[in-house]
Amino acid sequence: MAANTKEALLREVSTVFCEFLEAATHTLLFIRNVYPPEIFERRRKFNVPVRQSRHKDLNDYISGAVADMKQWMDKGLIEKVVLAVEDCATKEQIERFVFEVDVDLTDQAQSPAKGQVQAHSQAELEDALKQVLLKINIADSVMPPVRTDATFSLYVHAPTTIPQSSDDWESLPAEEGGPRGGGGRAGPEQGAILPLKSVQAGALRMQVYAQSFGRQRG
């Protein structure tokens, strides 16, 4: 496959994934009670009910962070995206939602009917991400409640150091961990792991799971 074709496909996958990630972030903040429920409104993404904050500063923060991450994902630099829910006072991580991503273009052969193939791949990808959003919507029913004095951070894992273009993210090698700003600390090394969804659609392979560190409100 020509290099420019690979780059175009990578950007397409990145665009759809980032749309999903923004919707997933808002929905997770709602279902885990990180912010008051009254600041969220109902929306739909990929024909799935999701939540969207009505708070301008929060919306700007999330959309800006996702836009920054997209620049890195467009270049194939992202291995993992993490939303960490933290205790406001101690900055310890209460739980994480982890999105492990792999974009494999080796089998995405160029076809004479290129437009049709790309349209089919995008529809397949959106359908797969739809299934993840559905699973996220019910994750709250199988997870312990989160304390009300929580905040959140976003961070990424990358195979190598990537340019820091925003204060909204901290890029870390895959073997390290820690949220934006380096302040958050995980408790136990692993924590309890709850698999949420594993999908493969076109060039995208993704595993989504939650990690709970046992400091939720009793």
Can you characterise this structure?
Helix 1 runs antiparallel to helix 2 (56-73) and helix 1 runs parallel beside helix 3. The chain has helices at residues 3-31, 56-73, 114-139; strands at residues 40-45, 48-53, 80-87, 93-103, 150-158, 171-173, 192-201, 204-212. It has 3 helices and 8 strands. The strands form 2 sheets. Strands 6-5-3-4-8-7 form a 6-stranded mixed sheet, with helices on one face. Strands 1-2 form a two-stranded antiparallel sheet. A hairpin with a 2-residue loop joins strand 1 and strand 2.
Features:
218 residues, alpha+beta, six-stranded mixed beta sheet, two-stranded antiparallel sheet, 3 helices, globular
Summarize model confidence as the mean pLDDT: 81
Query: Quick one: how many beta strands?
Result: 8
Low-pLDDT parts are 109-117, 171-184
Percent of residues in helical segments?
25-40%
Q: Topology as H/E string?
A: HEEHEEHEEEE
| Assembly state | single chain
Number of helices: 3
